[in-house]
Amino acid sequence: MMRAMTPIPGQPDTVVGQPSGAGAVWVYSGMGPQWAGMGRALMQQDAFVEGWQQACQALYAHGLDLRDLMQRDPEQVNMQSNWLAQPANFALQVALTCLLRQHGLQAGAIVGHSTGEMAASWAAGALSLADAARVVAVLTRLQQTVAGGGMLALGMSAQALAPWREGIGGVLDIAAYNAANSITLSGDPDSLAQLEQRLAQAKGARRIFARRLTVEVAYHSAHMDGLQSALLAELAGLQPQSPVLPLFSSVSGSQVSNASHDAQYWWRNARHPVQFMAAMQQIHQYGFARYLQIGPHPALSSAIKANTGETVQRLALIDRKQDALASLSSVLEALQASQDP
Questions:
Q1: Which of 27, 58, 212, 300 has the lowest tally of Cβ within 10 angstroms?
Q2: Phi/psi of residue 300, nearest 5 degrees
Q3: Rounded to two decimals, what is the model's pTM?
């Protein structure tokens, strides 16, 4: 049973205007890099535990029960399953945000990639935790009804993709524009497999990066089309606010200036391609020197580098290949040392 919750630490309450370039950009990752056991080592941190439990409580109010997830045997946890992966990613990001704020840190700007926008919208003050959890719960349940799709990350531009996809039938949509030479495709598994086979035959300099994401839903594709009416109806009561921290949308690719995170926004988030490259280019104009990935693994490092250049510092709170507590300690030290007095 959950114990009584204390208030979420450091929740911003003062509206902040244009970014100044000071502080770090907090980047909330989407689906794909999640893994069983993610965040477990951080349950020694009180602020992380508080954030995790508050997120789980908010999700539980909408029928998603993750309250014992950290006690489950990781070998028995299927983090590919949408019904678990999406809410777990959200709860992890809320907990990591609380941990950062407990250490006196605040974002200079915030951006979410795809489903990472749910936690990002809460972190920036555009949605309450209850409303953000409601978005997660509704999208998770509806998208589970169209499970059976797939996604493929590619190291190429949309223009370069065109000749490779000729003649491949079925749903094969561009789901995300991550960087100039980095996109994600979404659609039918057979269509993705045909494309993968073609790309695998590329030789020498034409060899192309292609990696399947660990998801079972074809986010941002025509697979979503049948969900529109139900999604809009179930999210009609959201109460979005203007963000209190600089928030950049990967739906529009620009800064959010009003209370835009209503039901229509989340429909566009689910169906339209992720405009991460456009959002990152907007953010980069403010001269930020540090980008912090908030999620289970630094899956967006290459895209951040491609959009911002070699000189920015790319940090991640969790890397599944590294000791979580040691990684957290070094990142917190770097962030605190760089904070303006």
A1: 212
A2: -100, 10
A3: 0.93
